[in-house]
Design goal:
alpha+beta
């Protein structure tokens, strides 16, 4: 099964981890999925957060937030001290205004008002999700995919709490194929 490397993998279980996953193959040839402001807009839309607009400055800010979130997540998972600068970045974004859902009545039909929000509203929502994740009970269930070529993070919600791969359809299937081939 071929995987589109620039497609956003929404398999982290939380917006914060899905956002961190916009940089793929960390340390193994980094795949930047947020290459242009339009990519940030597309991610926000696909994540179901907001219909937003983004500029080059928003894109750079998004990447900085993403990397601060990644470092804090890895420090949390590894139980090592966090960098105060990363905490400050996330807190700064979390304090900003987020998009507010609204209803619209169009021709007698109730619909969601999808007016555009600034990218900062999306980044604020993602930062707040990171705070909830890293300080809540799910923090102990954050895992990294065991596939050595994958660097995606996910919340392990399996019953046994022993999930190994970001997705059985992706890395799990490849690992099983490697095992099958090596035993033949």
């Amino acid at each position: 099964m071929a995987v589109d490397l620039l497609a956003f993998p929404f398999i982290g279980g939380r917006h914060a981890l899905n956002f961190v996953g916009t940089l793929g193959k960390r340390g193994q040839g980094d795949i930047e999925r947020l290459g242009a402001p339009a990519d940030l807009v597309r991610w926000a839309e696909q994540a179901g957060l907001a219909n937003c607009t983004a500029s080059a400055a928003d894109l750079e800010a998004a990447r900085q937030l993403r990397e601060a979130m990644y470092r804090l997540t890895m420090a949390t998972v590894s139980r090592v001290p966090v960098q105060t600068e990363d905490v400050a970045v996330i807190n700064e974004w979390a304090a900003r205004e987020t998009a507010v859902p609204a209803l619209a009545l169009r021709s007698g039909v109730l619909e969601r008002d999808d007016s555009e929000s600034p990218a900062s509203a999306v980044l604020a929502a993602v930062a707040r999700d990171a705070i909830d994740l890293l300080t809540g009970p799910e923090a102990a269930s954050i895992r990294g995919c065991e596939d050595p070529t994958c660097t995606l993070l996910f919340v392990d919600t399996s019953r046994s709490n022993r999930r190994r791969w970001c997705s059985m359809d992706r890395c799990g299937a490849r690992a099983k194929m490697r095992t099958l081939r090596s035993s033949s």
